[in-house]
């Protein structure tokens, strides 16, 4: 496994915390999981940094059909996260996918999968509020990230 350094870890942990708080405040059945396997198919079980799932408990990987959103925090893998992983997640029907560029301090927010791409893409600078596109009434403050 590649090492994870503090910038990556801090952004991941703080964003996971803020997502969890926002979902709890909303009374959402979704839960936040971190660095767990997601069952895309028999040969593909990626471990995104953050997973929003309706099935956080149980044995084995998180079921694909329970996943509402995935987040990758990228300090050294930005190209891979925005190309190969985007294709994998879009093909799997993941409704929303975020890539946090830790170096440029920008969140690439992708939603509405179509084939192996996403129909919508928005960039938001860290420090600004981010609205989850596919879950109503969930805003995340990113000022401390």
What does this structure look like?
InterPro entries: Nuclease_put_TT1808 (IPR012296), Restrct_endonuc-II-like (IPR011335), Uma2 (IPR008538). This is Putative restriction endonuclease domain-containing protein. It holds the Pfam family Uma2. Residues 1-129 form the Putative restriction endonuclease domain. This protein has 3 helices and 10 strands, in the order αβββββααβββββ. Helices cover 24% and strands 33% of the residues. The chain has helices at residues 6-26, 78-82, 84-92; strands at 31-34, 38-39, 50-53, 62-63, 67-74, 96-101, 106-114, 117-125, 130-131, 139-140. It is of the alpha+beta class. A hairpin with a 7-residue loop joins strand 9 (130-131) and strand 10. The mean pLDDT is 94. A 6-stranded mixed sheet has the order 1-3-5-6-7-8. The chain has a two-stranded parallel sheet with strand order 2-4. It is globular and about 40 Å long. The protein has a single domain (6-140), classed as Alpha-Beta Complex (tt1808, chain A).
């Amino acid at each position: 496994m590649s090492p994870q350094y503090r910038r990556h870890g801090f952004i991941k942990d703080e964003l996971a915390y803020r997502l969890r708080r926002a979902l709890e405040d909303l009374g959402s059945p979704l839960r936040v999981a971190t660095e767990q396997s997601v069952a895309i198919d028999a040969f593909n079980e990626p471990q995104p940094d953050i997973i929003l799932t309706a099935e956080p408990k149980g044995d084995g990987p998180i079921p694909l059909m329970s996943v509402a959103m995935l987040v990758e925090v990228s300090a050294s893998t930005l190209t891979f996260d925005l190309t190969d992983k985007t294709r994998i997640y879009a093909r799997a029907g993941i409704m929303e996918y975020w890539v946090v560029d830790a170096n440029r301090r920008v969140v690439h927010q992708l939603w509405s999968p179509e084939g192996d791409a996403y129909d919508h893409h928005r960039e938001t600078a860290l420090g600004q509020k981010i609205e989850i596109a596919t879950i109503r009434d969930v805003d995340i403050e990113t000022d401390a990230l």
